[in-house]
Structures are given as C-alpha cells and as structure tokens.
From TrEMBL:
The lineage of its organism: Bacteria, Pseudomonadati, Pseudomonadota, Gammaproteobacteria, Pseudomonadales. Member of a two-component regulatory system. Its EC number is 2.7.13.3. Signal peptide: none annotated. The keyword Transport does not apply. Keywords: ATP-binding, Cell inner membrane, Cell membrane, Kinase, Membrane, Nucleotide-binding, Phosphoprotein, Transferase, Transmembrane, Transmembrane helix, Two-component regulatory system. This is Sensor protein. InterPro entries: CusS-like_sensor, CztS_silS_copS, HAMP_dom, HATPase_C_sf, HATPase_dom, His_kinase_dom, HisK_dim/P_dom, HisK_dim/P_sf. It comes from Pseudomonas poae. It holds the Pfam family HisKA. It is a multi-pass membrane protein.
Amino acid sequence: MIKRLSLASRLALLFAACTAVVSLLAGVLFNHASEAHFIELDQQQLDGQLVALRSTLQGVDSPQLFAQREAQLRAELNRQPELALRISANGQRWFDGAPGVSLPEAPGLHSLQNAGTDYRVYNAPLVEGQPGSPQLTLMLDITHHQHFLQRMQHLIWLTVGLSALATALLGAWAARSGLRPLRRMGEVAASVSAHSLTQRLPQQHMPVELAELAQAFNAMLGRLDDAFQRLSAFSADIAHELRTPLSNLLTHTQVILTQPRPLEDYREALHSNLEELQWMAQLVNDMLYLAKADHGLLMPKREALALENDVDALLEFFTLLAEDAQVSLVREGTAHTSGDRGMLRRALSNLLDNALRFTPPGGEVRVRLEDGAKLSVENTGEGIPAALLPRLFDRFYRADPARREGSSEHAGLGLAITQSIVRAHGGRIYCESGEGWTRFVIELPA
C-alpha cells in the first residue's frame, strides 16, 4: 500500500514545482530575448557588410567587370574572417566563398547549420530594385552566439533544478514550522480522554488562520466536558433515584417470605410493591422521553390552539388539589399558537403541579396569557435564590435541599421534560423569582 504524503511534504513539493515553473518560464523568456537580440545584432552587421560590398562592386554587371574588382573584393573579405560571400547572376556563380554548401535562395535573413558550424545567411540583390541584378549571399559565422545560448540553456536547467531543490528544502522547513500548531492540536486531541477533558489549546500564539480552529476545538472540548459531566451526574442520579425503591422492594419481599403469612398480608405487600414499580416505570418512561428529545425525535403535531381553553381545562383538573392546599387558581388573558395539544398540556401540567407544591396555604397560582403566545405560571411563596435558577431545568435537580432519596412522588424530571417540549416547539422557557413571586415564562412561536 502506497504511503500517503504528509501535508508538509505536499507543500514542499508544491513550492518546488512553483519555483521550477517560474524559473523555467523566466529562463525561456530570457533565452528567447537573447536569441532575438543576437538576430538583431547579426542583421545590423550584415546590413553594414552589404553596404560595404555594394560600394566595392558598384557598377559591376558582367563577369568581366567582376574580374577587375575580384582582388578588391577578396581584400575586403579578408578583413572579415567570419563572413563568406557567394555571387550569382543568371544561373552562373561569379564568386563562391562557401563551395559545396547548399544555401537558401529566398531573399531575407535565414539560419543555417553546416558541418557543425552555424551561419546567418542573408540574400539581397547587388542593386536594389534592378531586375537581373547579381544576387549577393552573405554567410556570417554565428557559432560563438550559439555556444553562448547553449551554455545559457544549460545554466537555466541547472538553475531550475537547484532552485527547485532549495525551495523544496526551505518549503519543508517552513511548512513544518508553520504546521507546528496543528501538531500541537493533534497531541492535545490524542491526549483527550474521559479524565482529561479540561485540556485546552493556547490561542495566544496561534496564527490567525488557526486561531478560529483552536477556538472551535476548545469549544468542542468544553461541550464534551460539559456533556460528560452531565452524563456522569445523570448516571449517579439514576442510581440515586433507583437505589431506595429497589432496596425497599427487596427488603419488603424478603420480610414477607421469611415465614408463612395470611393471604391479606401478601395482597398488601403486592400492592405496596406495585406502587414502587409504577413509579420506577414512570421514571424510565420519562428518561426515554428526554432521550428522544436529546436526539431531536420529538416531532410535535401542529394545530391551531387557543391556549386559554387548555389552561382552563388544566385548572379544573387541579381544582380539588388546590382546594385541599388552600390555594387559589387564576387565569388571565388569552393567547394563540400552533403546536401539539397533548405535549403542551403535559408541560403546563408539570408547571402547575410544581407551583401547587411550593405555594403556601392562602397563596395564589396565576396563569397569565399574553399576545404573541407568551405564557407564564406564577405562584406566591418563598423565592428561589438567583444562583439556583440556571439549574432548575437540569435532570433530577430539586431546589429543595430537603429532597428525599428515591421519592416516589417527584424525581426532578418535570421541568426538564417541560423544557424539552418547549424547545421542540421552537420556543424557550426561563424562570424569574423575587418579591414573593416565582414565575416560569414560556415563549412560543405565534
């Protein structure tokens, strides 16, 4: 199996490739510019030589006249050892300084290589614009130019290779240095366990590009730590709540079975055990309900509701309990929303039951409905300390410090269930307490 390249190696190779491409393009452009410059220099030199040759051969239009000027021409060519000349007219060669070499006949400047030697060939008439004028073919030896261009090409390739290698090494070092925060994040992630969720990445020395990632990573660790603490507390609370009823069931059953007893005693024991089992079954059902809420599985039905009608029905249900507790029930205002009637009644029922338990005799429980689907359940009595308000909706939490273990009446899940129902409807719930009143406020979408 082929091992995948690391990010640092990929960056180093990318830097090297980019440097090689840039160096190669620069070298090619410089090579083309140099070649064009040499061609321009050769053209200028050949133009100068052509002027001198035309001056030397001025008036020559026949082989006899050329023979008279040949010695002067050879003297002129001897002063230019890199220059060769061929003169032809009407298919005859008057002079050939490069015998056996096939030269292009088209007018203008050409490049030619023969026997390892490079030439620049220039064809032009002796007399410009005169038909039948002898044709001059100038051959300029440019081998030294070509050698320079070849050396420059070798230098370009060497530069490309060395620069790519140097960039790869420097890129690897820079990438490794730049990715050090990522390695630190990997080390922290590898060290995270159920016992080390408090570790955090230092954000002060992080690059700007990684600061947000470090912040998100720390936030994730915070959420995991909070979720783990809640899960640990939940497990402890479950054991705490179930320990007493299970112990009661076990002890009661063992006592009943120690000796034969009348049928009525067995019947009474079964009824007592049934109450405990019913409470445990309700606790399990409530936990399953909250688990569905945590996973977004609560899907409330949507129907238009006049909340005052549902509140009145619940108040009528709690009337007898309120009379026994000497508490008055009052409903004020109206409100409308769209939601699941059964789920919302369960939430309101939890709030009313909670309010009745903590309202002293002679007190009042008031349900206030306002426009915009805002509902509040208020009760008189001793207030709740501000420090405890954020925890009221935690599972198994009871603000009453005298809570009883394994109470078969109230397990501390009512407000958690209420909050889950409200959130499933897209609303929010919060608690206010002060000046002799405690108020639970629900805000639902209108």
